[in-house]
Amino acid sequence: MFLVQDKLCHKSPQRLFFEHWLNDILIPTQNIKFPELPVKKSDLIEALETSHEAFLTLLEGVPEEELTRPGVTGDWSAKDLMSHLLIWEAETIKLLYFVKMHRKPDTAHFKTISDDEQNKIWYEQFKDRPYERVWNDYATIRNQTIERISEISDTDLNNTSLFPWLKGQSLAQLIVSFILEHEAEHTETLKAWRTRVS
């Protein structure tokens, strides 16, 4: 949700955002804040919702041909960036499912290859997926993440010794790192891209 500074305007927020991005006419009504550790589950969920909304808002009103054009970061388009975030979040959902089943995860978080190598593999795998499918998947995946987190107690989220395979890290720390901080990093990537192309 956005406010218009000192103006009453009847255009849609999405259209205004697209037209006036560089002029800073629109300001977020909420700042994205990472929850402090140890986290309250409710704070973590709120941060996940706010972060996701902020990312999606950056893309609203942008023509599809711009969102599928390479150059947002290296050869990647905005669609590729969404796919990248989508896959990492899907892996994290899978990890949370393993937690529920009391099994050690075999997700990409514990891979033996580097992040760059893994990202290149996924890019080649998913670069030809239709934009509409990527958008729809990204727009809805956060609900699955929140559903999984809702099944975990605050105590288990913050326990640094409960899951030996996390090597002293808590589930909350992993979620903040692989979803919130990751999404925030690429939200800044999108902002820089919007500045360049406008």
Our estimate of the beta-strand percent is under 5%
Low-confidence segments, given as residue ranges, are 1-31
Radius of gyration: 18 Å
**CATH fold field value of the largest domain:** Four Helix Bundle (Hemerythrin (Met), subunit A)
> How many domains?
2
Q: Count up the helices.
A: 8
**Would you list the SSEs in sequence order as H and E?**
EHEHHHHHHH
In CATH, the architecture of the largest domain is: Up-down Bundle
Our measurement of the CA-to-CA distance between the termini, rounded to an integer number of angstroms, reads 22 Å
The helicity comes to 55-70%
What is the CATH top level name of the largest domain? Mainly Alpha
- Name the CATH superfamily assignment of the largest domain: dinb family like domain
Overall mean pLDDT: 84
Largest sheet: 2 strands, antiparallel
From the spread of the alpha carbons, the general shape counts as: globular
Number of strands: 2
Helix/strand-derived category reads mainly alpha
Q: Which strand order do you get reading across the main beta sheet? A: 1-2
